[in-house]
Amino acid sequence: GNSVTQMEGPVTLSEEAFLTINCTYTATGYPSLFWYVQYPGEGLQLLLKATKADDKGSNKGFEATYRKETTSFHLEKGSVQVSDSAVYFCALSGGYNKLIFGAGTRLAVHP
Amino acid sequence: GAVVSQHPSWVICKSGTSVKIECRSLDFQATTMFWYRQFPKQSLMLMATSNEGSKATYEQGVEKDKFLINHASLTLSTLTVTSAHPEDSSFYICSARVPGLAGTRETQYFGPGTRLLVL
């Protein structure tokens, strides 16, 4: 079945550090891939997405490339800010447009 | 665009009472909405898919009679937790798809969530 595996957190970084959050997936067919972000006490916000192999999603300095050969969709940002502190969820679209989420990775950025 | 709201944002109730949570698409019509449950520091668990004008489709292990879903209009879905118990305390989040918009068929937009505490 379809599944998403994310690196375990928490990830703790200093401001302006480089961020990578790994995400790999298992899926039949060709799913779309997403990164969502959840700030404390809030719902999820779509951060970026990619709908086919080699697509790169980007938003607010974050990027992720859909790698079919490695079944990965790693999230990267060149210079994190304190305001990026949140929980990040990798997800894929399963059958019937259902989203399958990874466990989430908590990011804490310190000044 | 693609704003989803939920009401209430948090609710405290006594054990045995029922609680209704509303999910609204504010600037689009949503034929399909989704209800999730999230436990502290955990991922989202899909509870059910809410389809306008028809019965909801529940995920395995989710009690239909416990979690009643009504999607009576294209902009509103409701989740009613019946005879709530402390173990129902959780963060409930809804989402909606934006139909007909190129490139967004599979994108879900999420509400801010409703925190339920059952005493």
Provide tags for this entry.
heterodimer, A: 111 residues, 4-stranded antiparallel β-sheet, B: 119 residues, mainly beta, 11 strands, 51% strand
Explain what you see.
The complex is a heterodimer of chains A (111) and B (119). With 111 residues, chain A is mostly beta strands. Chain A has strands at residues 3-6, 11-14, 19-21, 23-26, 33-38, 44-50, 56-59, 62-65, 75-77, 86-93, 99-101, 105-110. In chain A, the strands form 3 sheets. In chain A, strands 2, 5, 6, 10, 11 and 12 form a 6-stranded mixed beta sheet that branches. Chain A has a 4-stranded antiparallel beta sheet with strand order 3-9-8-7, with no helix packed on it. In chain A, a hairpin with a 2-residue loop joins strand 7 (56-59) and strand 8. Chain A starts with a strand and ends with a strand. Chain B is mainly beta and 119 residues long. In chain B, 0% of the residues lie in helices and 51% in strands. Chain B has no helices and 11 strands. In chain B, strand 4 and strand 5 form a beta hairpin. Chain B starts with a strand and ends with a strand. The model of chain B has no long low-confidence stretch (mean pLDDT 89).
Task: Report a brief summary of the structure.
The complex is a heterodimer of chains A (111) and B (119). Chain A has 111 residues and is mainly beta.
Taken in chain order, the helices and strands of chain B follow as EEEEEEEEEEE
Query: How would you describe the oligomerization state of the chains in this entry?
Result: heterodimer
Give the helix tally of chain B: 0
- The radius of gyration over CA of chain A amounts to 13 Å
Broad shape of chain B: globular
Q: Percentage of helical residues of chain B?
A: under 10%
Low-confidence residue ranges of chain B = none
Strand residue percentage of chain A: over 45%
Tally of DSSP helical segments of chain A: 0
Give average pLDDT of chain B, whole number: 89
Radius of gyration of chain B: 14 Å
Residue ranges of chain A: pLDDT <50 for 5 or more in a row?
none
Largest sheet of chain B: 7 strands, mixed
State the share of residues found in helices of chain A, binned by percent: under 10%
Largest sheet of chain A: 6 strands, mixed
